[in-house]
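// run 5 | inverse folding | seed 20
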């Protein structure tokens, strides 16, 4: 597809933010103004194009990332709208892995919210350049400048204001473009499709404030002539063109020029000599600084009120990267493990990453695929270098939410969906058979919560296995397993809402009826002291015997370290071919723990000595020895239980603050701080996950529905001894 659109005209971007910041509404306006859709789909009406799942339309939230393609000013924009709820953070993670740039949307009333910080860190992890859009400038309590300060304080990035709001709350009518020195007013009558642009370059002169009244009349006349006149708009124009706005233009234009001048020696020289910088100078430097992560441009608007979206599209083109602007993708050659780089070049060997699996009711399994190099055509056979399997490309599609368009070929920079791949899963590399490469894989978090489900009938039981296998192939953060003792199936995920959606999808899409148990916490075990064991496995029952001796030191590690195995055998006391078997035995045994049956983490096993028999030793005997050594040693190394602790942020009117804080304390919560958020307070706390089940209902009741909260996994912490007895009585086997 690069023949009609060269790579320099591509933009692969995502919309990221906290839940309810207005991501999907912004995306819907982008689709409308670019002509991709001919009617604005509203989230609150359940009609958003990008929220096509039944659960998304009912709840008014984005659950799965949706992809589409639109065009603006001759540029091709591949756009992914991502979820904002922390339970679906995996969708953001895998989208950012394959995107070149991002638009971070912030709520001008709430400011930088917790999930905004999470997705910002994810974008940092994948070095994704971004611009900021301060949304909802029409809302009561909107504060653009507070958001700008929070970008610096909370996110640790340098904001560069390139737009200023004209008016705020109900009087928000447009923006000042500090780059072009224009004032832009959107016409309500055309749903923001038309607008008036006025030159404000004369505001930079000292006497500009004396001429505000004259300028107001000129703006009113121009707006009226262009069909955007209304009594309300005229009143707002008069009330918002104030000396304070002129002063802000002076201040932020000067700050803009000072910041961007550092990006180019010639521009810096012009700036220091007091010469005027052209619009082209400023845009070139803004782009360079954005791509270099020197700063983030900040824009503003109100997507719901149809203001500021066209200028956001312009900024996407002007400041976010094309596939040619990002570093060449890095990978390794499978046979030699040599690091290589592939350019975004259609003539290079084809390579790309499968970043998402989805099930389409009409097409079947779809693999979302980012092409990093080369040209992909239907009928080609590619190599999956992770599985060492070949895949034939039968059908290739461009996706628009849940509708599709067949294409015969795609090139570097494209994001396509491949139908019918059998072996490929999320994170796999597909590439030319003759030029194999393995691209960096994606990392997925471990689940923190699970529920037990029992199918109601034998027919449901058969369907449930198939349903869970399909859902797990789509969602790497979903795990499921069968409990051999109870016969129940355990489904583990990232939060209550995540599991609720999974069970709802099983019922709707796969017609599986099941009884769902109470949520269970994914506890872990660890050891609290070092223990050395010398264990010998010996068995002689006639014929070939079994023999393996291992001497291992088990020692505790820092929280979050997981399991570490170290081999310190010298002199061949244990042959090197048996060493992996010892590690395997320990790793298998740790999955079911020692005292409670929970997986054991945060410890190191150091193999320091051992012995073997020429005839009676093999990999199985050393695996058995490793397993038994772990069980005996861990029981004597001070086993402890760990529980997941969540970072909880509660936003509540001050009236209910005492009740909320008291309730958090009763849940073994530790208060971390408090801050103002508009006319409410935000309480930061760390609370064990086991104490948070059903918290949403308690909070609603306590605050008459006026308080809200969000939470995300923080860390694992030791469970108090008194709680261990309660956990043991539950006899739950999780993980």
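// decoded
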């Amino acid at each position: 597809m690069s023949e009609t659109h060269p790579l320099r005209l591509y933009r692969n971007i995502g919309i990221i933010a906290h839940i309810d910041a207005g991501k999907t509404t912004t995306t819907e306006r982008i689709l409308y103004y670019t002509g991709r859709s001919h009617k604005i789909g509203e989230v609150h009406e359940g009609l958003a194009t990008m929220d096509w799942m039944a659960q998304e339309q009912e709840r008014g939230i984005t659950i799965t990332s949706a992809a589409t393609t639109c065009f603006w000013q001759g540029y091709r924009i591949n756009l992914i709208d991502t979820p904002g709820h922390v339970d679906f953070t995996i969708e953001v993670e895998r989208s950012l892995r394959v995107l070149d740039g991002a638009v971070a949307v912030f709520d001008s009333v709430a400011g930088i919210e917790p999930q905004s910080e999470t997705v910002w860190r994810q974008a940092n992890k994948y070095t994704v350049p971004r611009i900021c859009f301060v949304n909802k400038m029409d809302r009561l309590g909107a504060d653009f400048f507070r958001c700008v300060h929070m970008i610096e304080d909370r996110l640790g990035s340098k904001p560069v204001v390139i737009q200023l709001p004209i008016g705020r709350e109900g009087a928000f009518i447009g923006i000042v473009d500090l780059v072009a020195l224009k004032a832009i007013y959107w016409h309500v009558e055309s749903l923001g499709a038309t607008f008036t642009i006025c030159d404000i370059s004369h505001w930079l002169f000292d006497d500009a404030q004396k001429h505000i009244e004259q300028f107001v009349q000129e703006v009113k006349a121009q707006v009226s002539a262009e069909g955007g006149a209304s009594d309300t708009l005229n009143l707002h124009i008069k009330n918002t063109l104030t000396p304070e706005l002129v002063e802000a233009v002076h201040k932020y234009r000067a700050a803009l020029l000072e910041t961007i001048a550092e990006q180019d020696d010639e521009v810096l020289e012009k700036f220091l000599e007091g010469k005027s910088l052209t619009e082209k100078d400023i845009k070139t430097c803004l782009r360079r600084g954005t791509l270099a992560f020197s700063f983030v441009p900040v824009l503003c608007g109100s997507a719901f009120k149809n203001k500021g979206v066209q200028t956001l599209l312009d900024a996407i083109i002007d400041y976010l990267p094309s596939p040619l602007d990002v570093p060449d993708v890095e990978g390794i050659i499978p046979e030699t493990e040599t690091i290589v780089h592939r350019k975004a070049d259609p003539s290079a060997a084809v390579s790309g990453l499968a970043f998402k699996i989805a099930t389409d009711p009409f097409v079947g399994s779809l693999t979302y695929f980012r092409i990093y190099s080369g040209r992909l055509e239907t009928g080609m056979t590619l190599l999956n270098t992770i599985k060492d399997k070949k895949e034939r490309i039968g059908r290739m599609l461009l996706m628009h939410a849940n509708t599709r368009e067949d294409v015969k070929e795609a090139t570097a920079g494209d994001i396509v969906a491949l139908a019918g791949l059998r072996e490929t899963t999320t994170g796999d590399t597909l590439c030319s058979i003759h030029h194999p490469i393995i691209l960096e894989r994606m990392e997925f978090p471990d689940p923190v919560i699970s529920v037990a489900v029992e199918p109601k009938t034998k027919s449901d039981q058969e369907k449930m296995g198939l349903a869970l296998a399909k859902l797990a192939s789509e969602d790497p953060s979903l795990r499921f397993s069968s409990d051999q003792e109870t016969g129940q199936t355990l489904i583990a995920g990232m939060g209550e809402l995540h599991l609720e959606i999974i069970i709802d999808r099983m019922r709707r899409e796969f017609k599986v009826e099941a009884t769902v148990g109470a949520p269970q916490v994914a506890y872990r075990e660890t050891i609290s002291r070092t223990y050395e064991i010398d264990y010998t496995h010996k068995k002689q029952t006639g014929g070939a015997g079994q023999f393996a001796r291992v001497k291992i030191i088990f020692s505790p590690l820092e929280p979050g370290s997981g399991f570490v195995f170290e081999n310190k055998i010298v002199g061949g006391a244990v042959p090197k071919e048996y060493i992996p078997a010892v590690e395997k035995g320990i790793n298998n045994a740790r999955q079911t723990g020692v005292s409670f049956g929970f997986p054991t983490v945060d410890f190191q096993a150091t193999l320091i000595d051992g012995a073997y028999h020429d005839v009676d030793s093999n990999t199985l005997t050393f695996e058995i020895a490793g397993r038994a050594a772990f069980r005996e040693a861990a029981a004597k190394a001070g086993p402890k239980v760990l529980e997941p602790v969540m970072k909880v942020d509660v936003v509540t009117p001050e009236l209910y603050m005492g009740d909320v804080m008291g309730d958090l304390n009763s849940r073994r919560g530790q208060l971390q701080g408090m801050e103002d958020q508009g006319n409410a307070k935000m309480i930061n706390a760390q609370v064990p996950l086991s104490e948070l089940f059903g918290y949403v209902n308690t909070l609603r009741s306590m605050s008459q529905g006026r308080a809200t909260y969000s939470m995300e996994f923080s860390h694992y912490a030791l469970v108090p001894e008194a709680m261990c007895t309660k956990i043991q009585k539950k006899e739950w086997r999780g993980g």
